[in-house]
Structures are given as structure tokens and as C-alpha cells.
Amino acid sequence: MELHQLRYFCAVAETGSFSRAAERSHVAQPSLSQQILKLEDELGARLFDRLGRSVRLTDLGKAFLPRARAVLRELEAAKGDVVERKDSITGSLSVGVIPTIAPYLLPEVTPALSKNWPKLKLVFREEKTEQVVRDLESGALDAGLVALEADLGDLAREVVMKDPFVVALPRGHALAKKKTDRFASMRDMHRALAQARNDVQDTPAPQIKKRSRSASHGHNGRFFSLWRVTLLPLRVIRSAP
């Protein structure tokens, strides 16, 4: 017994005509009629009484119809369940995020993630890069969002975004007056800043900004103040009120 035979049988029963059933099923009438005959032969019973151009169900056909419909409904339900599970992500996803990114990126992406995968439970943990890497290696985290400069060893990685830095400095600063070679003048700062570019401490950004006004050395993170110069990710500037 084939599923398409059950579909043809239900179509004939519902339309009362082989020709209309064939039209609805998008097959040639002789092919449909042949499949109905094969179904009747397999069941060993006549399902329809042929009355010229019309047909009607026999008593056995009437008894068989709800069973055939039930099989087709179950098939459609099973297909729908498979499609839903295939296109849906369920379970829990633990993501480690460095503090530089967390306050500015997560409010943007979390609503979209929840909308597209409502059955996915997202768990974000704010950690320094070194801790995120350790947790990924140990299996405590499923994924991590860290800076491009991070040493990830053998961990698989994918660049998901790039956020340029902005140089913020007071009016009248020597670097602000330069039209060209401004960044070359910052060469002496590079070594002091390179070590600090991986992470930011857990200090909230407003406190870091406040502290940076009087700081004379680099802050250990992506927010620094050195010689009255502050480097900030562009996303931080855009998210400021």
C-alpha cells in the first residue's frame, strides 16, 4: 500500500469523481484509476461503486475512509514536526563575553536571537579574555566573544564584526592640531597600549572615563588614557546617550 494511493482514494471519495480527483491531484485520470484498482486489489475489497461518470463509496470504502485520512494526517504532522525541529535551535547556549563588548553588543543582538530561536536559552557570562578561553577549552562555555587580538590557541574562530577605535583628546591637544602623521606621533604610545588592548577590567565604562581624566598611564583594557588621549571603540561612542 502506497501513500499516494491513499491520497487518490481520499480525493475520489471527497469529489465523487475520478476525473475531478485526478485534476485535484495533478495526475492523469488513467493513472489515478489504476492506482485505485491496485489499492482495492491489495485490500481484497471494492472501495467504490462505479455509476457511470460518478462513483460512491461502498460500505467497506466508508469504513476505510477515516482510517486513510488518519494516516495522511499523521504523516503531515510528522513532516511538520521534523521541519520545525530542523529549523529550530533548542537547549541552552553559554556564551562568554568580554566586558568591552557585553554592554554595547548584547542589547542589540539578544532580541533578534530570542525572536529567531525562541526555544534557545541564552546564558551570557562576562569574563576577561583569558578566562573565556580557559572555559572554552574546558567545555564550560559553548562560545565566546573576544577581541581579534586574543590568543585562542587551537580553538575554532570566526570574525563576526570589526569595531574601529576612535581617538578622543582635549581641544588644543598637540595631536589634535596635527593635520598629517597624527598616528605616527603616537608611536611611542603603541608599546604601552598593545598589552592593554585585549580586555577591559570589570570597572563600568562611566567610571573608566571619569578615571581616565586624571590617569597618567594606560588602563588595562580597551579604554585607556595616556598623555590625555583616550582610545574608545566606535560602538561605545554610538551607544552613548
Tell me the CATH topology of the largest domain.
Arc Repressor Mutant, subunit A
Portion in beta strands: 15-25%
Strand order of the largest sheet: 4-3-5
Number of domains: 3
The whole-angstrom Rg is 34 Å
Q: DSSP helix count?
A: 9
CATH-level-4 superfamily name of the largest domain: Winged helix-like DNA-binding domain superfamily/Winged helix DNA-binding domain
Helix content: 40-55%
Characterize the structure shown.
With 241 residues, the protein is an alpha/beta fold. It has 3 domains: 3-87, Orthogonal Bundle (Arc Repressor Mutant, subunit A), CATH 1.10.10; 91-145, Periplasmic binding protein-like II (D-Maltodextrin-Binding Protein, domain 2); 165-239, no CATH class. The chain is built from 9 helices and 8 strands. The strands form 3 sheets. It has a 3-stranded parallel β-sheet, with helices on both faces. It is rod-shaped, with a radius of gyration of 34 Å. 21% of the residues are buried. Mean pLDDT is 76; it is low at 191-226.
Please specify the SSE layout and strand pairing.
Blueprint (H helix, E strand, L loop, with lengths): L2 H13 L2 H8 L3 H15 L4 E4 L2 E4 L1 H29 L3 E7 L4 H15 L3 E7 L2 H10 L4 E3 L19 E4 L18 H8 L10 H8 L11 E3 L2 E5 H6 L2
Parallel strand pairs: 3-4, 3-5
Antiparallel strand pairs: 1-2, 6-8, 7-8
Helix pairs in contact: 1-2, 1-3, 1-4, 2-3
Short overview:
46% of the residues lie in helices and 15% in strands.
